């Protein structure tokens, strides 16, 4: 069937898409649009309203295929030479082609719409569409009441859909989509979907606006109430001074601080009075005043003047640690006698588990001072010591001042725990910030950035703890009195366990003395075969494990009373973890037992040497540090300088390789005390002479064979005794350190003081 083609004037709609059977006003502002309107009016013909396709980056003009045929009902010329035209749209049409001279002229054909909706279905669709329209009107999405009533009166689905598409504010793309749908049912279904989207967006917008309006109203209400309160206070003659200001002033008068501090706080209170209560600065100022007034400016505790009571407390809480106790008792004696005396700044140095932290708590009890602990491990920001300036957001005092506020007294015992583990980065050097804190001449006027006034720390008893002195900078170390807390002997560990640990763990696990008993033999077995440590933490954990097993046996009815002895200790702790090493103390060639100090106590190291055919290379393995490598080279040079080395031949050292190895290769090792050990092992391997397996040694060596002093003597002797060594070689220059040791440590072993390497070889080698 041939469709009839019509020629008519075409007008491009740049302001939106129009639907059929509607009236609207169109403003013709361009010359070509006015001429097109004039031509259509003159010839009394229809016009075609086409919608241009806008493509990004494409300047060519094209139009959608489906548009609307319309008639011009009337027009009015405007002062700007344009026209306002009343247009009545009629029906859909398909654009076939168009051309442009003065204005657009096109050829269009009619389109045939399909409408196979049944009567019942049409009623249902009408009902749904009108419900959606009513919902949009109720929500305020559409507002023209006259059009709303007119559209709701339509009985045709086709007319209802087209009218609603024009009436409801939907996108031009959606309108064009509906215009191009020729099936009425599909068009209605699509409009229902579009209406759902419009209603959903409308509800979200309404909720957002309600929240915004609610918050705005609440803020306005609070503002009005604040203003009313301000006016009421003025009417009552309160002059704006609220309860906070009165409380601050009262606390300031009772603080007992210096005049400088008093003036500083009073000035801040006056500043706080003049700030509006809703301003951010108000809370910052109030917090600053509160912190300043919380500091114990004039609050102190009375020291214990009963010297014997202090001695009894220290002896009751800790076994051993005589040097620490003696120093504290000396300080107390001076303080009681003179009622003054500079406070010592003590640094307790020793392996973990030796009681450094707990002795500080006991000292606080003995001196009747408040105890406060400040952990410095991992602190890397200087502001954590000195505080932040109060102008910063979230500013607060440093940890020192915070600890003083926590103690509520200006003369507490402050424990600076793990002082060797502070670090520094781009935020400052923490150890440098501690210089002022730990200097008795400077800490009378410690400067905390948050306070902005001097803080007196001279009454604080500072005690620091560390595992290793090498981690503490020299200037900081110089300000402290170092007291070494060495590892415990087996006998000391036994007494500590018997007097303290057994009772502590028994009570911790809910056992009574009648339910749980452990004899001396069992305790010594735990010390000898289940622990290898300088302190007693592992010992306490093993006793705790025994108590837990005892609880289980009692609750299961296996035993009513648990008695732990040397014979049944393995039933509680399993097989021995460490066995006696007497079987390993055999005479060997090229193997010597050395002694080393670590941050966790003394250890023994067996140094081995092999001589191989080669090119004279000295190979070092076992993850040695630079100092230990240099000791190996020095020992090798000494061996080559000996007279007996000449008998080996001129090319012996050029034709052999020498491999020095220290077992446990994954553990880093370094230090200046293994020189004589490596030299002895080299001599034994080169000249094929066995080394006495029951000898251990420590000492540094020079190129000429002189034996130099070492450190950590007590820990090294304890480590040697633990494995059953009978003879120990130490530098003669450590004689004073040796004489200071308890007889308990030196008993059972023969200590040989050596001055040079020849003495070492004579004592260690089995000729």
From TrEMBL:
PROSITE patterns from the UniProt entry: LON_N, LON_PROTEOLYTIC, LON_SER
SMART domains tied to this protein: AAA, LON
Pfam families cross-referenced by the UniProt entry: AAA (PF00004), Lon_C (PF05362), Lon_lid (PF22667), LON_substr_bdg (PF02190)
Catalytic site positions: 673, 716
Domain of life, source organism: Bacteria
Reaction(s) this enzyme catalyzes, per UniProt: Hydrolysis of proteins in presence of ATP
Similarity section: Belongs to the peptidase S16 family.
Sequence ranges assigned to domain Lon N-terminal in this UniProt record: 8-199
Record's protein name: endopeptidase La
UniProt keyword annotations, A-Z: ATP-binding, Hydrolase, Nucleotide-binding, Protease, Serine protease
Biological source species: Coprococcus aceti
NCBIfam families associated with the record: lon
Lineage of origin: Bacteria, Bacillati, Bacillota, Clostridia, Lachnospirales
EC number, UniProt record: 3.4.21.53
GO molecular function, one term: serine-type endopeptidase activity
Originating gene: lon
Lon proteolytic domain span: 586-767
């Amino acid at each position: 069937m041939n469709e009839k083609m019509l020629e008519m004037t075409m007008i491009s709609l740049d302001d939106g898409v129009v639907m059929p059977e509607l009236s609207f006003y169109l403003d013709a502002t361009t010359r070509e649009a006015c001429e097109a309107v004039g031509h259509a009016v003159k010839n009394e013909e229809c016009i075609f309203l086409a919608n241009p396709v806008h493509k990004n980056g494409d300047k060519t003009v094209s139009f959608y295929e489906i548009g609307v045929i319309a008639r011009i009902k009337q027009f009015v010329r405007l002062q700007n030479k344009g026209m306002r035209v009343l247009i009545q749209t009629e029906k859909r049409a398909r654009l076939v082609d168009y051309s442009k001279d003065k204005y657009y002229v096109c050829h269009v054909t009619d389109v045939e719409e399909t409408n196979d909706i049944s009567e019942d279905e049409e009623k249902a669709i009408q009902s749904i569409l009108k419900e959606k329209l009513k919902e949009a009107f109720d929500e305020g999405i559409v507002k023209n009441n006259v059009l709303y009533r007119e559209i709701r009166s339509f009985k045709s689905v086709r007319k209802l859909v087209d009218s609603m598409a024009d009436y409801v504010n939907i996108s031009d793309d959606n309108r064009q989509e509906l215009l191009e749908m020729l099936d009425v049912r599909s068009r209605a279904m699509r409009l229902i979907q579009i209406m759902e989207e419009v209603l959903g967006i409308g509800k979200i917008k309404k909720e957002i606006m309600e929240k915004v309006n609610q918050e705005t109203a609440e803020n306005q209400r609070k503002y009005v109430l604040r203003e009313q309160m301000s006016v009421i206070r003025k009417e009552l003659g309160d002059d704006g001074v609220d309860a906070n200001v009165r409380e601050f002033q009262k606390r300031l008068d009772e603080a007992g601080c210096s005049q400088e501090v008093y003036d500083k706080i009073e000035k801040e209170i006056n500043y706080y009075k003049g700030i509006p209560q809703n301003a951010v600065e108000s809370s910052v100022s109030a917090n600053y005043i509160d912190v300043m007034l919380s500091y114990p400016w004039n609050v102190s505790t009375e020291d214990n003047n009963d010297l014997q009571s202090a001695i009894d407390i220290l002896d009751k809480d800790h076994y051993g640690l005589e040097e620490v106790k003696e120093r504290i008792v000396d300080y107390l004696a001076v303080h009681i006698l003179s009622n003054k005396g500079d406070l010592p700044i003590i640094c307790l140095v020793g392996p973990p588990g030796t009681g450094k932290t707990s002795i500080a708590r006991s000292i606080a009890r003995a001196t009747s001072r408040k105890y406060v602990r400040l952990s410095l491990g991992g602190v890397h920001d200087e502001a954590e010591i000195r505080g932040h300036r109060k102008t910063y957001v979230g500013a607060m005092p440093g940890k020192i001042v915070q600890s003083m506020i926590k103690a509520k007294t200006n003369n507490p015992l402050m424990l600076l725990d793990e002082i060797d583990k502070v670090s520094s980065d781009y935020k400052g050097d923490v150890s440098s910030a501690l210089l002022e804190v730990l200097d008795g001449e400077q800490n009378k006027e410690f400067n905390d950035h948050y306070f902005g006034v001097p803080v007196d720390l001279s009454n604080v008893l500072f005690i620091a703890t560390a595992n290793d002195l090498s981690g503490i900078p020299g200037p900081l170390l110089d300000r402290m009195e170092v007291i070494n807390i060495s590892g415990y002997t087996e006998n000391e560990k036994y007494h500590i366990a018997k007097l303290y640990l057994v009772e502590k763990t028994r009570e911790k696990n809910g056992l009574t003395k009648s339910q749980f008993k452990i004899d001396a033999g069992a305790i010594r077995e735990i010390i000898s075969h289940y622990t290898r440590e300088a302190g007693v933490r592992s010992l306490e954990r093993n006793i705790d494990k025994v108590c837990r097993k005892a609880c289980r046996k009692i609750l299961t009815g296996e035993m009513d009373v648990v008695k732990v002895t040397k014979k049944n200790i393995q039933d509680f702790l399993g097989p021995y973890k460490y066995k006696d090493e007497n079987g390993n103390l055999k005479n060997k060639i090229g193997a010597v037992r050395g002694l080393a100090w670590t941050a966790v106590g003394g250890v023994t190291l067996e140094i081995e040497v092999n001589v191989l055919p080669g090119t004279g290379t000295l190979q070092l393995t076992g993850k040695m540090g630079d100092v230990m490598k240099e000791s190996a080279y020095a020992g090798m040079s000494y061996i080559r300088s000996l007279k007996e080395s000449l008998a080996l031949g001129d090319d012996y050292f050029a034709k052999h390789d020498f491999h020095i190895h220290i077992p446990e290769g994954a553990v880093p090792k370094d230090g200046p005390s293994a020189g004589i050990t490596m030299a002895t092992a080299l001599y034994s391997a080169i000249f094929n002479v066995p080394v006495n397996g029951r000898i251990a040694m420590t000492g540094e060596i020079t190129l000429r064979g002189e034996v130099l002093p070492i450190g950590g003597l007590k820990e090294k002797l304890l480590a040697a005794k633990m494995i059953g060594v009978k003879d120990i070689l130490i530098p003669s220059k450590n004689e004073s350190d040796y004489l200071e040791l308890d007889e308990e440590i030196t008993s059972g072993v023969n200590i040989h003081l050596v001055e040079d390497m020849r003495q070492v070889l004579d004592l260690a080698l089995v000729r």
